Amino acid sequence: MEVDRVVWSVLSVFAALLSGRFVVLAAFSQSLDSDFTFTLAAGRKECFYQTMKKDASLEIEYQVLDGAGLDVDFIISSPSGQVLFSDYRKSDGVHTVETEDGDYMFCFDNTFSSVSEKLIFFELILDNMDVDEDPDNWKEYVHGTDMLDMKLEDIMDTINNVKSRLGKSVQIQTVLRAFEARDRNVQESNFDRVNFWVMGPDSAPGPAVPWQKVLWERQPYPDNYVDQRFLEELRRNEGIRQYRYWAVVKEAGFVGQQLSCVAIFITLWLYMEQGLLSPERLLWTSLICALLGYGLHQALTSQVESGCEPRTRLADLQSATIFLSFTFGFSPILKTLTESVSTDTVYAMSAVMLLAHLLSFPYAHPSPPGSLSLNAALFASVCLASRLPGALHTFAMLSCALMVFALWPCLLQRLRENAPGHFTAVCVGVCVAGVGGLGSQSPGGAVLLALALGSVTLLCPLLLIRLQRHKDNIHGPWDEAEIQEDLSHFIQ
User: Fold this and answer.
1) How many CA within 13 A on the CB side of residue 12?
2) Are 128 and 54 in contact (CB under 8 A)?
3) How does DSSP classify residue 236?
């Protein structure tokens, strides 16, 4: 009788529910569990979005079913863009988030792999998504409950309990199927690899001879054969140097000051050609600057240099005396050296030689200057000095050229090594002097020089930093072999 009473009670409840036009179905929220399997291509990133309500719960579980390494990068972000969880190269993971109103984003990233695609399974479990509905509103549609011996709340609790357990069973079965798929993929991959090494590359019975990346041993493989792991060793942008903008600007200052030195030299030549600067004043100024620079160079030079003995002051004095003597003696000859050449040709040769000086100058290690750069600058100086009024003008111009193009880079290199702060200030001062001096003779030339200095010292470093992002160097097993063994004992 007790069983019959329970059956009749249940039938009465369902009759009442049907009479209420199925409103009671609102008490059972629609299943909010979903799963998805997709293929993530090599070098790609896929993102998904899920709209959530406040005080709800989002649980996501993912697994990598197939692909080299069985790993993937995973992140989940809040509606405000904050990264809540992040996994780096994992094969599976489970994360639970207490949500707020908005769209949650979760992404799978396979950009670290350039060859292998990944098969990914993930499942979403959403709880408390029906917070706006009243779970007890179905009671007002049910009548005659006082005639039942069982409470409707107990029946609803039992049905909800069965429903939740069935949903949990479906979820567990889905996860187990994902595990089974991943294990099957691993087993098939292992089977193919064992078959390959045992049967040979042509799947024909033969000796189990593994392929080696050598050409001097006889192998049952063609010379151009590579195994399946060939592209798996691909590496991108290995050992790229990262630049900082202001550090590059500081190094580019050496290029800017060398361009300004050429402008200063041309300005002095223009002053002498127009008679605004006497050769005696230029000689005395050059002598004073040379003595001051020599003293500063000696102060900055370390007492002991590895690999070579320091030069004595007597040797430096002898070198300077020999050069000045020969230059002064050959000044009349150098003055008449280009008399048979037109002035336009002399100016064109000077411009080409000064450009060659700037292009071939060893900016990384300018002490001493390169032979090609120094010879080009001195050749341009001889061509320009031959167009001055007298032999003394030629001697003064060549002496100034030696100081600007040969001695000044050595002093500036010492400043860069021992006084970096002063080196930057000196470069800025030389650039300002170059623009100002050229502006006194040619305002248009000063504007062009200022634009060139701005491009070299500010714009080019910015372009270098921006272009670094697009660098794509690849390395792999096709690179030349590098001997890592220490072979010094064979040389002895």
Assistant:
1) 18
2) no
3) E
